[in-house]
Write a structure and sequence with these properties.
The chain has 231 residues and is mostly helical. It contains 10 helices and 2 strands, in the order ααββαααααααα.
Length: 231
């Protein structure tokens, strides 16, 4: 798929699919934050401050990172800016977010926004884990399907740039920022969390492996579908 992204037109197609995975990422992060920190009133301290610190640091970067222009933005907003730079259509995903913010269910909002069907399937799988899976399985999905995987994916994507010399500065910044924070900091942090959540529990280890396999399969199916759309 990375070799197929050899023009701005194909980059637009990729981004118009992939942006939904950028959006649903935060539901996994927020589920971890919800379980590992106290976000209710009145506040009470959590039993493992180290875990609270870990997820709060991740959310800090993902929800309010440096935007490369002297300000701050979520990684989702950085991605939208990168889409606009290359002329990709942001209207469907913005419609999705607006409907969800107004109280619509994500599943209905995805259909109403006419999101690509492969993206609908991928997001539905992610939200099922974020809503219903036990904490160690959410951590497994977050680590294996995102934090450990994304630096490798994005490094491979950057290595394939052949885009007619056209500017893609915002997308390059987005990719390089993820490679930096996920590979050097977030990935190892979530690995520690997952190890602690599964310590001494063979059942949790197996469940985490099963979840890892499911999220990697979902990613592969999504990537294959995007590749089909490209070619």
């Amino acid at each position: 798929m990375y070799r197929a992204i050899d023009s701005l037109g194909r980059l637009r197609v990729f981004m118009e699919h992939h942006v939904y995975a950028v959006w649903d990422f935060m539901s996994l992060a927020k589920r971890l934050q919800q379980d590992l920190t106290s976000v209710v009133i009145p506040w009470t301290p959590r039993t493992v401050p180290k875990f609270a610190r870990l997820i709060n640091e991740i959310v800090l970067d993902e929800e309010s990172d440096q935007d490369g222009c002297g300000g701050y933005a979520s990684h989702f907003e950085l991605y939208l800016a990168a889409m606009r730079e290359v002329g990709a259509d942001t209207r469907p995903v913005e419609e999705l977010v607006a409907e969800v913010a107004a109280g619509q269910t994500p599943e209905v909002a995805l259909v109403n926004a006419n999101a690509p069907r492969p993206a609908q399937a991928f997001v539905s799988h992610t939200l099922h884990i974020a809503r219903q899976a036990p904490l160690h399985e959410v951590a497994a999905a977050f680590f294996y399907g995102r934090e450990d995987l994304i630096p490798t994916l994005f490094t491979a994507l950057l290595a394939q740039w052949r885009l007619d010399g056209k500017p893609v500065e915002r997308f390059t910044y987005y990719l390089e920022r993820h490679i930096e924070v996920d590979g050097d900091k977030h990935g190892p942090m979530v690995a520690q969390l997952l190890k602690a959540l599964c310590a001494g529990r063979l059942d949790r280890l197996q469940q985490s492996r099963d979840t890892a396999q499911r999220v990697m399969t979902a990613r592969l199916e999504f990537w294959n579908a995007i590749h089909q759309a490209l070619v």
